[in-house]
Amino acid sequence: MVLTTPEYRRWSMAHTGWSVGPLLAIILAAYTAHAKMQHPPGNPPPSFGDPIGNITVIKGRDITFTCVVKHLGPYKVGWVKADTKAIQAIHHQVVTHNPRVSVTYRDRTTWNLHIRNVQEDDRGVYMCQVNTDPMIAEMAHLDVVVPPQIVDNETSGETTVEEGNSVTLTCKARGYPPPVVSWRREDNLKIVLRDHSSKKVAPVLEVPVHMIGSPLSKDVTVRCKVESSPRAVTTWRREPGEQMIISSRKYNVSEDQEGFYVTLMSLTIRNFTKDDATTYRCVASNSLGTSASSVQVYEIQPQKQRVTKEEEDSRLENHIPHSAADNDKDDLAHFSDLDDSINNFLGPLSAGGVLESEHEREAISEDQSSLKKSSGGITFPFLKSGGAVGGVGWWAWLLLLCHASLTAPTVL
Questions:
Q1: Per residue in 99-134, is it b (16+ CB within 10 Å) or e — as a string?
Q2: 3-state DSSP call for residue 233?
Q3: DSSP secondary-structure letter at 389?
Q4: More confident residue, 411 or 81
Q5: What is the pLDDT averaged over residues 148-176?
Q6: Which of these ranges, 78-82, 215-219, 228-232, has the smallest mean pLDDT?
Q7: pLDDT of 341
Q8: Percent of the chain with pLDDT over 70
Q9: What's the rounded Cα separation, in Å, for the pair 296 and 278?
Q10: Is the distance from CB of 224 to CB of 207 less than 8 angstroms?
């Protein structure tokens, strides 16, 4: 490509907006004049040595393109940014107004184009050109890469959403090549995608026991678990009238945080009375709504202790304090008392002449001794079919039997 000075002025203004000064016009005139020269006969024509290598560089670094030309002769080397046709330098003179561009050369064979602090707009194809007729050129590509960077003002920040609702998170990144954006949870757990067609109520309340019974004069505690975000304002209320309950001598209201989303509510009713038997409600409210749940507290009537027959028999058995030997001694003691009672009873009868003979008295004495039995039984062999012993009527023996039944020990 050969450009005359007027042509370059028009092309430069059209493509770069730069105005060409007198010095540049002289340089371009000399460059184009050489381009019209005929190659000296007998000399080898100019040619390129090693190819210009492509360069990939991170934005902000410095780069150097090196062009090796053999047998340059009277010709000149120029640098052009091919995609924009912007001339960077001609021979040893920088043409572009970009202060970051410079040129160096050595032995008229090695020509260098330097670009400092490379920017993204420096990306493109660069051409090392020799003004022969026809022109010869060697090209190389400059690729400027930009590390990925998150664009904060176009990326979602901390976002609050009601459980069960949908949320869209945006991540805007820039860089070159264009970065690939991926998502992961901060705790490295799997991201769970759920069906967003269903919606849950917030806050969510859970009451472990909905009915609690208590005797009078005892303390009763009811509990409620709240899950919410943002954190909910919680209160206890009682019916009738939705009366709000606060801590007092009668009530104790407390809260415990279990993690960021969970609040444990508790209400203690001191010295439970009949008036305290009603419905209590835990209420939680935040910017997303209000939820409530209830607990019924009722009185438990005390029950009398019922003793079964088996328990009564066991109790009686456990209250027999003596051994079998002790029972025998007790039996003898009771029968001795009975013997004395009989003598006292029969003595007057004998004095009154009812027991007339000594033989009868001895018989009765023998019969009395037969009453002393270790088994605890009592027999009366001296009872006669006539209903009397000697002169003792049946009523007297009836009294005797009654006395014996009252004083004799019970044999189980």
A1: eebebeeeeeeebbbbbeebeeebbeebbbbbbbee
A2: strand
A3: B
A4: 81
A5: 86
A6: 228-232
A7: 53
A8: 62
A9: 6
A10: yes
5/299 Cα distance (integer angstroms)? 110
Integer angstrom CA distances of residue 140 from 18, 87, 124: 25, 15, 9
DSSP one-letter code for 396: H
Residues 370 and 382: their CA atoms lie apart, in Å, by: 10
Residue pointed to by tokens 């415990």: 256
Cα 241 to Cα 143: distance, rounded to the nearest angstrom: 77
| Cα–Cα distance list, 408 to 304, 320, 327 (Å) | 37, 16, 12
Q: Angle 358-369/324-351 helices, nearest 10 degrees?
A: 160
Q: Are 238 and 245 spatial neighbours (Cβ–Cβ below 8 Å)?
A: yes
Helices vs. strands in the chain: H and E counts, helices first: 6, 20
The residue type of 85 is: K
My answer on whether omega of the bond before 177 falls inside 30° of 0, hence cis, is: yes
Q: Please enumerate in sequence order all residues whose Cβ is within 8 A of that of 11, keeping only pairs 6 or more positions apart, or say none.
A: 3, 85
What's the Cα-to-Cα distance from 386 to each of 26, 370, 390, 392, 402, rounded to whole Å? 180, 21, 10, 11, 20
Task: From residue 257, give the alpha-carbon distance in Å to each of 59, 231, 269.
Answer: 51, 10, 21
With bands split at pLDDT 50, 70 and 90, how would you rate the model's confidence at 52?
very high
Q: Looking at 170-261, which runs of residues are DSSP E strands?
A: 173-176, 204-206, 211-214, 220-227, 233-238, 243-245, 251-258
Backbone angles phi, psi at 171, to 5 degrees: -125, 115
Confidence of residue 340 (pLDDT cuts 50, 70, 90): low
Map tokens 């590390």 to a residue: 147
CB 202 within 8 A of CB 162: yes
> What mean pLDDT comes out for the span 347-370?
49
| Summary mean pLDDT of the chain | 75
Could you tell me the pTM of the whole model?
0.42
